[in-house]
Fold each of these.
Amino acid sequence: MFYLILIAIWELAYKIGVDWLRLWKPYIFPSPIAVFTTLWSLIIDGTMSIAVFASAKRIFLGYMLSIIIGIFVGLAIVRFKYLDENVSPLILGLQTLPSICWLPFSILWYGLNESAIIFVITIGSTFAVSIAIESGMKNINPLFVRAAKTMGAKGFNLYWNVIIPASLPSIISGLKQGWSFAWRALMAGEMISATKGLGQVLMVGRDLADISQVMAIMIVIVILGVAVDKLIFGRMEINIRQKWGLDKA
Amino acid sequence: MSVVVENISKSFITKNDTINTLSNINVEFHKGEFVCILGPSGCGKSTLLNIIAGLEKETSGRVICNGKEVKGAGPDRVVMFQEPALFPWLKVIDNVEFGMKLAGISKDERREKAMKYLKMVHLTRFQNCYIHELSGGMRQRVALARSLTLDSDILLMDEPFAALDSQTKNILQLELQQIWLETKKNIIFVTHNVEEAVLLADRVIVMSANPGAIKKEFHIQLARPRQPDNIDLAYLAADIMKELKEEVEKVAKAEFDTNWTSKKDLVLPDSDSDMGTGI
C-alpha cells in the first residue's frame, strides 16, 4: 500500500514536472509507466535473465571466496595474538576503502574480464566478514568457554563445539554485511568493466539516454539485494534468535 | 583419590600494589567427602575453587589431584558455576550430553546416561526444550545433571544456588544432598550461606579475608538426610556464624567509610542478603 502511494506521488511529480511545467526533459526524469514497460520488455526479450544470471554467477563466486578467506583470516586473528595486534588495524583500514578503488588494480592484474570483477567483490566483502568473525568470537560469554574447559574441551573441539556456535549470531550479521558490500562491489565492477550483467545493462541505458532502463535496472538491483538479505540471512537470523530465546520480551 | 592443596598463594598485581588474595592455603579433600568452603565475600574462596579447577593459575604452591599435579582444567574436576553456563544453541538433552560427546562416548550410551541423570533432577519432560524455555532453577538442575554425567570423582560448585530464589534454593539443596548420598562424589562447595553449608557439608572450612586463609574447620556429624528445620543445624550454624561474623565485619570495615564501626552500626549476622534463608 505504502509503495502504491509512493508510485502515485512519483507519477504525479512526473505529470507536473515534465508534462505541464516542462521543467525537466523526459530523458532525465522517467515516468513509472515507462519504467515498468521497459522492465517488462527487458524481461520478455531475455536481456534481464541473461544479465541476472551473469551477475548471480559472479557474486556467487566472489562472495563464496570472500567467506572462505574471511573465515580463515578471522580465525587466524582470533588464534594468534601477534596477528591480532598487527593485522587488525590494517584490516580495519582496508575495510574503510571502498571496493571500487580496487578496480584499477584488478583490471591491471586480470584485464577486463570476469576475474577482475570477482576480485573486486571478494576484496570488498572479505574484510567485513573477517572483522565480524573476529569480534564475534572475542565477545562471546567467557563462562561458556570456562564451562566447556572443565568438561574437557580443548583446541579444535573448543572452537568447533563452543566458540563457533556461541558467536554464530554475530557471524551471521557479519555475513549479511559482507553480502551488501559484495553486492555493491559487483555493481560497481560491472558498470565499468563487464560485457554482460545488471551493471552493464544499466550503463547501456545511460549510453542510450534511456532513463527508464536505468531506473528499471536500479529497481531490480534493489529487489534482488533485499530478497537475498531477507530470504537467506533474515531466515537464518530468525532461526537462531528463536533458538536462543532472544526474541522474548 | 583425593585433592590436596599445598601452600597455595595467589596475588594480583595492580597499578599501585600487590593484593594477596590467598596466602598459604593447605587443605585436603577426601574421597566421597562433602566440604563447604565458607567465607565473606572477597575472601578468595572462589579463587581457591578456580585454582583447584585449573581455570586460574596459582602464584605459588600446587594442587595435587589423585596423585597428579593440576596443570589445567579437565573433566576429572567438573565445575558448576553460579550461572548455569548452559549452551543456548543446544537442547537440554544435548547440553547434558555435551561433556560425554567430548569424551567420545557412543551416541546410545550417552543418551541413556543423560536420561538417567535428567531423571535424577526430574527434568526428563523437558529434554527437547531449548535453554531459554526453562526457569532459573530448572537451568541449574540441567547444569547439575550435565556435571554429573562425566563421572568425575570430584565436583566443584561455586555458589551454585546463590542466584536462585529461596524456595527453589531449598528444593535444590535437598536434591543435591540426595544426589550426593546416591553418587558419593567428593563435592567442594563454595558458599557464603552458613545454613546451606551446615545442611550439606561433612566439613565446613571457614575462610578469613585479607589475605584469604583458612580460619577454622568444623566437622558436622549429623545424620543424613538432614532437614533444614533441624534444631541441631541451627545450633551449629550459630556456632559457625560467630566465627564468620568477625570476618564479615573485617571486610565491611575495609570496604565502608572510616566512620563506620561495628559497635555503633549494628551488624546483623545475616548482613549478606542470602543468609538466614532456609531456616
Amino acid sequence: MKFYFLSLSLMLLGALISTVVKENWKLKICSVFTFLSAILMLLPAAAVLLTGIPLAQSVYMSPVLGDVNFVIDPLSAFFVIVISIMSFLGTVYANGYMKPYLAKGMNISSHCFFLMMLIASMLAVVTVQNALFFLIVWEMMSLSSFFLVIFEGNKKEVIAAGIKYLVYMHLSVVFIIAAFVLLNIQSNSLNFADFNTFLQGNEKFANLIFFLAFIGFGIKAGFVPFHNWLPDAHPAAPTHVSGIMSGVMIKTGIYGILRVLLFIGTPSKSISYTFLVIAVISALYGVLYAITQHDIKRLLAYHSIENIGIIGIGISVGMLGLAYGNPVVASLGFAGGILHILNHSIFKELLFFAAGSVYLKTHTRNIEALGGLIKSMPYTALMFIVGSVAICGLPPFNGFISEFLIYAGMVQGIPASEIGLFLTLIFAIAGLAMVGTMAILCFTKASGIMFLGNPRSEAAANVKDDVARVMIIPMGILAFLTFFIGMFPQYIIGAVLIPVSLFVWNDVAYQIFNSIVGLMSGISWCFFWFFILMLLLFVVRAVLNRKSEIHNTWGCGYNKPNNRMQYTASSYANLFVSTLKPLFKRVSHIKKPKELFPKEAYYELEIEDIEEAYIVKPLIKWDEKLLAKFERIQSGNIQQYILFGLIFLILAIIGMIYFGG
Amino acid sequence: MINLLINILILLFVPFLMTGVIKKTKAFWAGRKGVSIWQPMWDFMRLIKKDSVVSRTTSWVFKFAPVAGFASIIFAAFFVPLAGGKAIIDIPFAFIIFSYVLGFGKFFSLISALDTGSSFEGMGASREACFSTIVEPAFFIAMASIAALSQNYTFDGFKMILGNAGGYGYLIIALAAITLFIMLLIEGCRVPVDDPTTHLELTMIHEVMILDNSGVDLGLITWGSAIKMLLFEALIANLLIPASLGGWETLVAFLAIIFALAILIGTVEASVARFRMTHVFEFIFIMSITALIILALTTYRIYGG
C-alpha cells in the first residue's frame, strides 16, 4: 500500500509542478509523473491480481469522514491497471496533440493540472471504500473532466457541451448520494465493508439500492437512456481527453455498478433482466446512431455507448447466472464483460487517437471531407484500421475474445429451466449478432471514407506527412495490445478471472476457470493457424502476381472520374438508414434550385437523437416553464432574501421538532 | 488422416464443379448446350496466369483484401463438418467463430471496395454490409435454437435434432435447411438477391465490389466465394444426412446433396428474375421468419409439451 500512496502523491505533485514550469515542459512533466506513478501503481495491483489477496489500509481523515479505507481488491486492481496504463498513453499522446495549441500561445496550465487530477481521482475512485470520501473523489473526477472538456471554451458549442456534461454528472451524483444515504441509514456506517450485511437477504432493499446506483452510475457509463451527454462531450474535448474519458472514465460507472453488485451478492432476477434489456438496447441504439454520424468523434462517442452496452450484456448475463445459480454462465458472463472493459479501453483510445491525428492534420472532423489519407498518413491509417477490426469484434483481435465469452455465456445459459430466460437469452444473442454486423457497416464506412479512395477536399489533399512519432508510438502500443490479446488470450484471461472470482465463488469455480483458460488456449491455437494461413496466402499471391499495370479506377467506360464522383459516407449509410426510417428523426435543410439559371442549391440531412428530441428536449421545456413561475421570488431585494432564509429556518426547526421526536 | 485429406480435397476442388453444375443447369433450362462443367476451373487457371491491372487510387488494403477474404473462408471451413461429418477443428461454439471469421474477410472486402474511390463499388459494399445486418441475427437465432434443442454447442448438434425434437424434428430440419439455403443465396450472391452474370453495375452487389480486381486477386475472390457457397451447402447436407449412415455412404450422400443443391440453385436462377433492391429486404426477412419459427417450435418442444 505504500506504493499506492506514493503513486497518488506523485500524481498530485506532478499536477502542482506542471502549473509552474514553462509551457513547453508542462505536458512532459505530466507524462513523466504519470509514468512514474503508473509504475508504482502497477506493482501493488499486479501483486493483488497474482495472489488474489487484497491490500488494505485505513487512514484517519477527519471527524466527519472517520477512518477511510483504501482497499485494492482484485476488482480495484483490475481497474487500477486499466486506468494507469491508458492514462499514461493518453498523456504521451497529448505531447504531440497539444503542440499546435501551444504554438497558438494558449495557456495549458489548467489543462495539465486537471488532467493529472482526473487521473488521480479516477485511481482514488476505484480504491476508496468509504461512501463519503468516494463521493468526494467522484465529484473531483467529474469536475476535473468538465474543465478538460471546456479546454476550447471560446467556442460556443464546446461550452454548451461542457454544461450539458456538468448537468448530467450532477444528476448522476444525486442518485449515487441517494443510494449511499439509504445504505448509511441502514448500516450506520460509511464503510463499504459494512454495507453488504444489510443487503444480502433483503431483496426489496437490495433492488432499490441497485436501481438507484444503476441510474447514478449508468449516467456516467452512458447507458441508454442516460447517454445523451456522451455524443456532445467527446467531440468538444481535446482528443486525448476524449480518449481517456471514453476509454477509462466512463468505465468508473461500470466499476460502481460492479461494486454495488458485490454488496448485494446474489442479485434478484428482476434487476438482472432489466439490466440485460437496457444493455441490449444501449448496444443497438449506440451502433444505430453511430452509423448515421459523419463527425468522427461523435461516431466514436456513440460507439462508446454500444460498447458499454456490450459490457453491460456481459455483466447482466453474469448476474442472471448468479440469480439462477448457474456458475458456468455467471463466470463466462462476468469474464466477458470485465475483459471487454479492458478491450474497449484499448481500441477506443486507439481509434480516438487516430481520429485526433487526422483532425490535427486536416482540421476537420467531418469524414465526408476526408479520403485518401492512407497515402499521406500510412501509420495512422493502419492504426485506425486495426482499431476498427478490433471494435467490430472480429478475430484475431481482442474484441472478439470478450464478445466470444459473452456469447458463450449466453449459449451455455440457453438450456434454461424457465421459458422467460430462454427467450431473453436467444434475443440477446440475436441482438449482439446484429450489433456486430452493424459495427462492421459503421467502421467500414469510417475507415473506408476517411482513409481510402481519393481526397474529398482541399484539406485532405494537402496533408503532407504523418503525425509526430510521439503520437504514433502510443497508438502502436495500443494496436499491439489489441492484437496480442486477440492472439494470446490465455495469458490475459487470468487477470480477468481473479476479479470474476469475487462474484462467483464456490467449489466448482476453479474447474470452470480452468476450462475457460483451456477454451482460450484452443482459440489462440486456431488463430495461430489462421495467421499462418494468411501469411502463406500472401506469399503465394505475391509470387503468382508477376506484373501489375497501374491504371485509373474502372469508371464503366468513363475515363475522367473525379473525386466528387466517389461514394460518400452518407450514401454508404443511406440504404441502411432509409430502411430503418422510423428509428431516426430526420431534419432536412433544403434550398431548392430556383430561377432559370440556378446559382445555389443544397440539401442537407441531419439526424437527431430521438431520445434527445422526444424525451430530453420536452422535459427541459417543461422544466423551464415550471421554473419561470418562480422568477418572481428573485426580486434582487436583500431583505426579502433574508426573510426567505428565516422562514426556511423556522420550518426546518418545526420539522425537526415534529419529526425528530 | 484419409478423412482429413478427402475433406481438404472436397473443400478446394468441389466448388469449381459445383459452379459448373449451376451453369450447366441454367443452360439446360434455357435450352442451350452450355459450357463444360469444368469451365470454372479453366477460368480460374487462366486468371492466375494473367497479369493484373491495379487502380492508382488503391493502397495495400486492396492487395490484402483478396487474401484476407480467401483465408477467412478457408479458416471458417475448418469449423464446418464436411464429408466425414466431423469438423477439422472441433471447438465448442463453432458457429460463433465461423460467422465472425467470415466477418473478418467481409470487412476487408468492403473497405477494399471503398479503396478504389469508384462511384459504383461503394454501392455494392453498402448493400452487402446492410444485408448482413439482417442475415446474421437470423442465423444466430436458428443456431442457438438448435443448440438448445440438441444440448450441443457445435455443428454436431444438427445430428441430434431428430432425437431431441420428437415429432417436430423433420419440420425443424426442413425450416433450418430453408434458412440456410436463403443465407446461401444471399452470401453467395445468387439470384434472386444478386445476379452474378449481370452487366449493369447499378444493380449488382458482389460483382460491383470487385470491378477493379483482376488476375490472381480476382481468381482468389471467385474461388473463395464458390467455397463459401460450398460451406453453406455442407451445413445443409449435415442437417439432411441421417446420423446412422456409415463412412462411405456419408461421403456419397454428402456429394449427392452438394450437387443436388447446385442443380436447385441453377433452377432457381433460371426460373426467377433478380428482385428489385427494395424487395430484396423482404426476401431476406423470410429467413428471419423461418428462424423465428424454428425458435417457436423449439420453445414449444422444450417448455410446452
